[in-house]
Design goal:
Blueprint: H1 2-20, E1 38-40, E2 44-45, E3 55-61, E4 74-81, E5 90-95, E6 99-103, H2 104-114, E7 121-131, E8 139-140, E9 144-149, E10 157-159, E11 165-166, E12 175-181, E13 191-199, E14 208-213, E15 217-221, H3 222-232, E16 239-250, E17 256-260, E18 264-269, E19 279-281, E20 301-302, E21 307-314, E22 319-323, E23 333-334, E24 340-342, E25 344-345, E26 354-355, E27 361-368, E28 373-378, E29 388-390, E30 410-411, E31 416-423, E32 428-432, E33 442-443, E34 449-451, E35 453-454, E36 463-464, E37 470-477, E38 482-487, E39 499-501, E40 521-522, E41 527-534, E42 539-543, E43 553-554, E44 560-562, E45 564-565, E46 574-575, E47 581-588, E48 593-598
Parallel strand pairs: 2-9, 11-18
Antiparallel strand pairs: 1-3, 3-6, 4-5, 4-7, 7-8, 7-9, 10-12, 12-15, 13-14, 13-16, 16-17, 16-18, 19-22, 20-21, 21-27, 22-26, 23-25, 24-28, 27-28, 29-32, 30-31, 31-37, 32-36, 33-35, 34-38, 37-38, 39-42, 40-41, 41-47, 42-46, 43-45, 44-48, 47-48
Length: about 600
């Protein structure tokens, strides 16, 4: 047993000795290699937009002779502007290949990454750093100098149509035209686009501009295009060719111009923007040059969506103007002819103003903002001084004289009368120019309005009342010889004036309020409008009498809604819009609604 144990120990010792004496193989060593030689396919590279997806330059180098499989070797192409010693280099990594190729777009993007302006030529130094795949044994090549020219991608502007455009007031909110265009990128820079407009023959020295940001499409409404066309120099109501182009800009400031597109020509017929009201002032009128003018005798009536009319006495050998805001000289309209012609605006109106007719008398003036024209013609009909309503359709029945003021019309302009009266269905009525007298009368054949008839032309059955009993607004226009009968939803009678007061306004809660800045313009018997700055988060109410808190109107919505009166107005008042700005407020007592439109 002892013998066996000694033999085992001896064997173990011999094994250890033999193991200690074994020779270890040396580690594998690789050579250092040699620097590569870099060459360029061209030393002057000038790609164009059509080369964006084409290879325009190849840079190749010799074998570095590393002692490994060439597919594992690593190469780094270094590029920097000449003279910077690769301190701000851009690099491209290649593994296992002795070359690298670039498309026109890749080189253009590289120049953009350097921050160089497009469309110019720059000189670059290039070299290759070679190494093993693990970055060991890095060797620098020779430096190759190359000139590279950056390019801009052209923009093609495409209109939705090139047909002639006649802009109509009735279509003001509709789309007039649209455009689309391709992107003109330059590297990763943000590119913004702006549509420029001018008239044919112009040089875009002072173009009208719409900025679209990064969008590649546009849509312009009739009203907006009309305003831009007039600003570009096309007189309202006239026809001229407009020219359009897209310009791209580097960044968001629209200061670094990049690419200018092709020019698109479109013939455009404009209209003069229709003001909410119109007045006549001048030495040829009874009110002279006093401004504000006397009302309602020198206020035009609205004939339709595009026209105003007035019947007025004019003195020969003098002049006049049309004003969109009574009491304000900020804007004006007029012309060069005593009988009518092209309607001119603001600075285009002659310094001598619009000449009156050669003969003193009563004239009908019609101003058409769609055609941009005005006409002045002698008026031979008679406009009564007053007007009343009588008949069993009214509360006063056929009694004559009629109760006043409930059945007396209000003269709302130079040729129109209006009244809000209670009407009974299935009955009839007449209009009388003289209360208590049956000598003359006016009426019609329709319950909703139509041609105004006089004396014996009025039907023997008189004018029929509406089919439903209730309050109605009746407007009688002696210039157009028409009358209208419309359901009325507001307070009776409607106010004569309207004002706004509240901390949402510049005047605050001071009452009386400052005028004319916080006084509405009366568009008709029942409709009032005012454009005014409003402060967000505040409130206001409407007052029918300035300086008096006895009556008020308002609502619950910041954007418009039902008109409330007196105690029904919220104690917190009418809320102002959520965004501070200038708003057009329309208060319509006919419909019982008020609206706010941001300007």
């Amino acid at each position: 047993m002892k013998y066996l144990l000694k033999a085992g120990i001896l064997t173990l010792v011999l094994a250890v000795i033999l193991t200690a004496c074994s020779k270890v193989s040396p580690l594998q060593l690789f050579g250092n290699g040699t620097p590569v030689t870099l060459t360029a396919s061209s030393n002057n590279i000038t790609p164009t937009p059509s080369d964006s997806n084409k290879v325009v330059a190849t840079f190749s180098w010799t074998n570095p002779n590393y002692a490994t499989d060439s597919t594992t070797q690593k190469f780094v192409l270094e590029v920097d502007s000449t003279g910077r010693n690769f301190s701000k280099e851009i690099t491209s990594i290649v593994v296992g290949k002795p070359f690298i190729s670039f498309t026109g777009q890749q080189l253009n993007d590289m120049l953009a990454a350097f921050g160089f302006a497009p469309g110019q030529t720059f000189t670059f130094d290039m070299r290759v750093t070679s190494s093993y795949g693990n970055n060991n044994e890095q060797l620098k090549s020779n430096v190759v100098t190359v000139k590279i020219t950056s390019y801009l991608v052209p923009i093609t502007l495409v209109p939705s149509s090139t047909a002639d455009l006649t802009l109509l007031v009735a279509n003001a909110s509709n789309k007039a035209i649209g455009f689309n265009w391709n992107a003109s990128n330059y590297g990763t820079n943000t590119i913004n686009y702006a549509l420029q407009m001018d008239t044919l023959g112009g040089t875009f020295a002072n173009p009208q501009v719409i900025k679209y940001g990064t969008a590649l499409t546009s849509s312009i409404t009739v009203n907006d295009l009309n305003s831009l066309a007039i600003a570009a120099g096309i007189q309202g109501g006239s026809t001229k060719t407009m020219v359009f182009r897209i310009v791209s800009y580097m960044g968001t400031t629209y200061t670094t111009k990049m690419v200018v597109s092709n020019v698109v020509n479109i013939k455009v017929t404009t209209f003069t923007p229709v003001p909410p009201a119109l007045y006549i002032v001048g030495g040829a009128t009874d009110g002279g040059w006093g401004n504000p003018v006397p009302l309602p005798s020198q206020q035009f009536s609205r004939i339709n969506a595009v026209s105003y009319g007035i019947v007025v006495n004019l003195k020969a050998g003098d002049s006049y103007l049309f004003l969109p805001l009574n009491g304000d000289w900020g804007h004006k309209y007029g012309g060069t002819s005593a009988t009518g012609g092209q309607l001119l605006a603001d600075g285009a109106v002659p310094g001598s103003n619009t000449p009156s007719p050669a003969t003193t008398g009563t004239y009908q003036i019609v101003v058409n903002f769609q055609t941009g024209t005005y006409t002045v013609t002698p008026f031979t009909s008679t406009i009564p001084t007053n007007l009343y309503i009588v008949g069993d359709a009214t509360d006063g029945g056929w009694n004559n004289p009629v109760p006043v003021p409930s059945q007396q019309f209000t003269k709302i302009d130079g040729a129109s009368f209006a009244a809000v009266v209670n009407m009974t269905a299935g009955k009839s009525y007449l209009f009388l120019p003289l209360n208590g007298d049956w000598g003359h009368k006016y009426g019609g054949t329709s319950a909703t309005g139509g041609t105004l008839l006089a004396d014996n032309a009025v039907p023997g059955s008189n004018t029929p009342a509406p089919a439903t009993s209730g309050l109605y607004l009746i407007v009688v226009n002696f210039q157009t010889n028409t009358y209208t009968v419309t359901p009325y939803l507001g307070p009776a009678p409607p106010p004569t004036n309207l004002y706004i007061v509240g901390d949402a306004t510049a005047g605050g809660w001071n009452n009386p309020v400052p005028t004319p800045s916080q006084q509405f313009t009366r568009i008709s018997l029942t409709d009032f409008q005012l454009t005014i700055p409003l402060t967000a988060g505040k409130g206001y109410v409407f007052l029918p009498l300035n300086g008096d808190w006895g009556h008020k109107y308002g609502g619950t919505s910041a954007t418009g809604g039902t008109i409330l009166a007196d105690g029904a107005v919220p104690g917190s008042n009418t809320p102002s819009p959520a965004v501070t700005g200038t708003y057009l407020i329309d208060v319509n007592f006919l419909t019982g609604q008020y609206t706010l439109t941001k300007q």
